[in-house]
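Hi everyone,

Forwarding the result from last night's run.
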Amino acid sequence: MDVATARWLVSDAAGPALRAAAAEADPGSLGAATRLRALVEPDQAAAVLDQVALRRRAVAKLGPRAENLFLTADGLEQATRWPVAARRAARLAATGATRVADLGCGLGVDALALQDAGLHVIAVERDEVTAVLAQANLGTEVLVGDVTDLWPQLAASDPDLAVFADPARRTGAGRSWRVEDLSPPWPFVEALLDGTRPACVKLGPGVPHSLIVDTVEAEWVSDAGSVVECALWAGPGARPGRRAAIVDGVELADTGRPSAGVGAIEEYLYEPDGAVVRAGLVDEFAGLVKAHRITDGIAYLSAPWDMPTPFATVFAVREVLPFDEKVLRAWVRERGVGTLEIKKRGLEFDPAALRRRLRLRGRGVATLVVTPTRDGARVLVCGRAGQAQSLPD
C-alpha cells in the first residue's frame, strides 16, 4: 500500500467501500474483488478488502476493537496481544509516569493500551504508511522519523518522560529473532535501559540471557499457554533479575534455588510453561512443587503428587514404554487409539511423521510424552491431571 492509498483508506471517503467489503463473506474471493472494483479504483478495492480480512484475523489477538483498527499484515504479526499490552501499560502507569514515548509504535496497539491506562503517548514511527494508519487508530499525531534521531530531542525536553520500545524484528527474509537484526539497533535499545527513567523494551522470548545486564529486569510473559515476549524493564518500578509472568497475574521470580536434581519417573509429570523455561526458572519452579527433573537439561519434572499450578501443565503418568516404534504401534493397535497427541523434548524426530507411521485407527484418544530419562529414551503414556483417560476398555 502506498501513502496516498493509506490516506484515502483512513478518510471518510473510504467508508462506503469499507462497509461494502465488510459485507463480503469471503473478502479474498474473485467475486468480492470484482464487486468492490465497481465502486472504487483497483488499488483502493484491494486495500479495503485486505482491511476486512486483517480485521477478522485480528479479533483473536486484539479483541473486539480490532473491528475498527487499520492494519497491515506485518504490523499485525508484530502487534502485542491485547491482554499483554494492557498488563504492560498498567504496570508502566503504576510507576507514576504520566507521559510516555512509544518509539517505533507500529500500528499503535501498545500506544492504545497506554492511552487506556491514562498515559499521554508521544508515538514515533519511521514508516510513513504505517504512521498514517497508526495516527487514525490513535486519534493523535504520530511523529514520522527515525527514533534514533528523534529520541534525544524528546528525552532532553522532558526528563520525566517514560519510554517504551518494540524494535522491529523483520529482515528482507522475513521475521527474525536475532538481536543483530533489531531496528533500531541493539546499542540504542540498550541505552534506553540506563535506569534514568521508567523504561520498557519488548523483545522476542528467545533473547539471549547474556545480553541482559544485572541492573535490568527481564520478564518472560506467557498468555493462554504461549510465551509471547521478553519485556526488559529499567528505572522506577523495575525489579532486577529474571522472572516468568502469566498474564492472569501470577509471577515466578529467581530466588537462587539450587538444582532440582534428577530422579525417577513418578506418578505425575510437570511440563513447565514456556515463560518458566525461557526465563531459566525450571529449578525455581521445581522447588515450589517439590518435583525433580527426569534427566539433566530437560524441562520435564516429576513428583508423586498433583499440585495444580498456573506455571505448568500437569499430567498423570499411566504407563512407561520404551521408545520403540514396534512397541508403540502394537500399543496404539491394542488400545484402539485414533487420536494421538505426541509431545517431546531433547530427542530429534518428527512427531507428525511418527504419528503417521503408527497407523492410528479407533476411537481412543491418548497423549504420549517422548523424552530422555536417566534410564534412556522413554515414552510416557499420560493424561492431563484431573481428566479421565479416553481409551476404550
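The chain has three domains: 3-71, 76-251, 268-384.

Cheers,
N.
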